[in-house]
Automatic annotation (TrEMBL):
Molecular function GO labels: DNA binding; DNA-binding transcription factor activity
InterPro entries xrefs: Carb_Metab_HTH_regulators (IPR050313), DeoR-like_C (IPR014036), DeoR_HTH (IPR001034), NagB/RpiA_transferase-like (IPR037171), Tscrpt_reg_HTH_DeoR_CS (IPR018356), WH-like_DNA-bd_sf (IPR036388), WH_DNA-bd_sf (IPR036390)
Organism phylogeny: Bacteria, Bacillati, Actinomycetota, Actinomycetes, Micrococcales
The UniProt record lists the keyword Transcription: yes
SMART domains given in the database record: DeoRC, HTH_DEOR
Organism of provenance: Brachybacterium paraconglomeratum
PANTHER family xrefs: AGA OPERON TRANSCRIPTIONAL REPRESSOR-RELATED, HTH-TYPE TRANSCRIPTIONAL REGULATOR SRLR-RELATED
Entry-linked Pfam families: DeoRC, HTH_DeoR
Protein origin, superkingdom: Bacteria
Protein name per UniProt: DeoR/GlpR transcriptional regulator
Amino acid sequence: MLSEERHRAIVSAIRRSGAATVAALSADLQVSEATIRRDLDALAEQGLVRRVRGGATDPRGSVRPEADPRSFADVAASAPAAKQAIAALACTQIRDGEVIALDIGTTVAAMCPLLAERSLTVVTASLAVVRALASAPAIDIVVLGGLLRPNYDSLVGTLTESALRQLRVDRAFLGTAGVRADGAVLDSTPSEVPVKRGLLEVATCSYLLADHEKFPGSGFLEVARLPRFTALLTDRPLPIEIDLPEGEAVEVLLP
């Protein structure tokens, strides 16, 4: 990650949480603590953060930890028909008896009502998924422990990532904040990115669920390249042209 991108990520993280420690930022952004300290000193000189012992705070005042301006419920209410169509398509890729991983995204969570009668093992760090499938008679749920992000009902951090590394799943279903024209799959929450990358590492097949609003969508942290996924599931023909290098491709599935 370039220093400018890292600075944006640091400021965004501190503005969401009100404060961040050097250790947490180092783990989230996968750089040394010495690098983070230099970044924080530079940002403090620009007035973008307030330097404190062990980290930095938001000079505008603190807010709840990881408080995205939009909650999980707010995001879930956006483009519900598109999310449901993509969720239904995603469920057709699953065979009974498989072990699947469900990401924290709202489109992924829309799969849950369609899976309630299936026989599966579900791995997730999403409390929304846990609540939706807790009473499903033939579904075993493996919950990835970690630090709670209250506003988005997700678990993140080193415990989550460590638990993931012990697992293997048949299929993983991930959401995204946006997909750039160069094929970069994006997110905007530093603590979520390692979890998404971990899901890709442990899955035999992986699917990106993204409605038409996600092209290009938003986000400034690259999770992976689009060809890293087995298939892209979306609700309309792509509204932007994805320019992939020669030899790289991804299957696009539509309802």
